Amino acid sequence: xxxxxxxxxxxxxxxxxxxxxxxxxxxxxxxxxxxxxxxxxxxxxxxxxxxxxxxxxxxxxxxxxxxxxxxxxxxxxxxxxxxxxxxxxxxxxxxxxxxxxxxxxxxxxxxxxxxxxxxxxxxxxxxxxxxxxxxxxxxxxxxxxxxxxxxxxxxxxxxxxxxxxxxxxxxxxxxxxxxxxxxxxxxxxxxxxxxxxxxxxxxxxxxxxxxxxxxxxxxxxxxxxxxxxxxxxxxxxxxxxxxxxxxxxxxxxxxxxxxxxxxxxxxxxxxxxxxxxxxxxxxxxxxxxxxxxxxxxxxxxxxxxxxxxxxxxxxxxxxxxxxxxxxxxxxxxxxxxxxxxxxxxxxxxxxxxxxxxxxxxxxxxxxxxxxxxxxxxxxxxxxxxxxxxxxxxxxxxxxxxxxxxxxxxxxxxxxxxxxxxxxxxxxxxxxxx
Length: 433
Prior knowledge:
Elements: E1 2-6, H1 13-25, E2 29-31, H2 44-52, E3 56-61, H3 95-106, E4 110-115, H4 141-153, E5 156-159, H5 162-179, E6 188-189, H6 205-214, E7 220-224, H7 231-244, E8 249-257, E9 272-281, H8 282-289, H9 294-306, H10 313-328, H11 336-341, H12 347-354, E10 363-364, H13 373-380, E11 386-391, H14 394-397, E12 402-410, H15 411-432
Parallel strand pairs: 1-2, 1-3, 3-4, 4-5, 6-7, 7-8, 9-12, 10-11
Antiparallel strand pairs: 8-9, 11-12
Helix pairs in contact: 1-5, 2-3, 6-7, 7-8, 9-10
């Protein structure tokens, strides 16, 4: 991993050296100010460019806020520490703070280390004590505000000596490497109107599109029962998925708008969240829903008679849909008999039908970049090979319309990646020794 090491310089010289040393010993590429020509003043644009090349960020914070680059064009300065936009000099935000803001904006793994507040520290390295330094801050207000913000926004580690920091950086970067293994696979979401047929000839195209999109690489489909879903259409979806794709799980959600806060502007687009209803296998859907409607058993028999050979997916889907209509005895473009046999799906209906065969509890991980060892254990202990994971996608923080989303994680693939990471770490430690 390419890691940027950030801190004020003179006060943390030995600590920086320890952090950089252990990162390089572990095989990581380090980007740091030490690589610059000694005695030069690095412009903010160069610092931002260095952070942009990084895949991870290590921030070390003691009691100095750091050098504040002047604002290019003189203008009245608003109060506060954080700039309106990361990476632009505002005359009051330090280089070190800019580095952190840029790493957050890029959504790379951020590992923050704060000097223990009870650890003795030379007064000349504390803002507000040393008045002899040029442009020295009159107080420690800004560094205290930054440290406070870090504790609210991040899971921080506390350090004392350079050797202590070295051990904590090693552990944190190893954990960050593990969390990078959490590769969620977005479930193919069906169009909102795919749950019922329509008189429009393209009314079944939502299911067709999802099956074609899933192909042989997706492992889950997602339906939203906040819209109308017929039980018969759930059966059709499961049958097509088993026949034509590698999908064996269906995620069931209810997409609802979040409650509007008084502070939100009325004109803001409604923020939605996916409320997890359950995860059920395609085979359970076929076994449970099929016996409830004689036409579905007729359809299942027709599929067996067709065999499994086909040359083109869309052609096969069209043939299966024709067999579907014939099983119900409906005329082309009409769905009267299917409608009479269907049940509108609700969370209560699904719970009653599927019982314990429907998994109802997702693993909730708000931020995959900050997943803990406990989160990994919960994932590995989940009673299913495909784990539903409820996350807060980063798009929500950027003003998009989804606050929560459910995707799936392939537990077998995660196990394989974790095993490889463990073996690579053993090799790295052997090389260090």
